[in-house]
Amino acid sequence: FESTLAVMLNICFGWFVRLYHSFGVSFYFFFMFLHIMKGMWYSSNHLPWSWYSGVVIFVLSIATAFVGYVLPDGQMSFWGATVIGGLLKFFGKANVLIFGGQTVGPETLERFFSIHVILPVIILLVVIFHLYVLHRDGSSNPLAVIDMLAIFRFHPVVLFSDIRFIVIVILLIGVQSGYGFISIFQADPDNSILSDPLNTPAHIIPEWYLLLFYATLKVFPTKVAGLLAMAGMLELLVLLVESRYFKQTVSAMNYHRVWTTSSVPLVPVLFMLGSIGKMVVHVDLIAIGTCVVLSVVLFIYKLLDSARV
């Protein structure tokens, strides 16, 4: 916490660098969620290696973001790590192996810092593999070129188009760091308070990209049920690619009614689940949250029976 405070106050433009890093992660997950939804919409699960590597990138990104969220040692960071540490106690000594002890302490921050540095390197390697299999097997979106005679060189048209988009994103992150025009990307103010093991907050509010999983943990009465539900939501992404063996595949020129009515309502339902993650737990919220989680499972289950390619 003192190191973060020193960067923010004593280093020239240190506050900007730290906020740029934080908001860069938010934009990273924002585009990743859009990419996953696009892949589901265009049945990218018919490209198994691309989909599997993408799921690995997603899971590793969540792990990297979580350990990075714990590093500032703020109030929300400490108690968020405590909640996850409580879940790992069901795996025997895994809690001590990862956290360095039974509770969150200085050893936890040291290990999480190392993990936060190592995991992005692993993600980079998986991204390279993801791009390789994508170029080897092709893409499922309508812009994919099927006729080899229609393929054109990456430079200069596509290259400059990508560079233009990257520059726009870099500028957006800079504007967000200076003005904070996207309120949902802002961290909870309580995380600017030094962690206090004796002062439990009313409820924990993690970063917005972790709200889906935290809400899943929150709406179930026991830790085991919440952990299984969270793992089940990730497993549904894997089942989507395995369902290519038994689902009906239809033409790209037609809109599959079941596919459309299952994928379109999934977006607002996920927004509802994320909003529940920011609310204080009570009986009515648990009932609503359980219905929302079941709706997510139902819509994704319907996607297993249909495809749009």
Automatic annotation (TrEMBL):
Keyword Cell cycle (UniProt): no
PROSITE patterns, A to Z: CYTB_CTER, CYTB_NTER
Cofactor comment: Binds 2 heme groups non-covalently.
Single GO BP term: respiratory electron transport chain
Subcellular location: Mitochondrion inner membrane
Keywords annotated in UniProt: Electron transport, Heme, Iron, Membrane, Metal-binding, Mitochondrion, Mitochondrion inner membrane, Respiratory chain, Transmembrane, Transmembrane helix, Transport
GO CC aspect terms: mitochondrial inner membrane
Name recorded for this polypeptide: Cytochrome b
Organism of derivation: Theileria annulata
Name of encoding gene: cytb
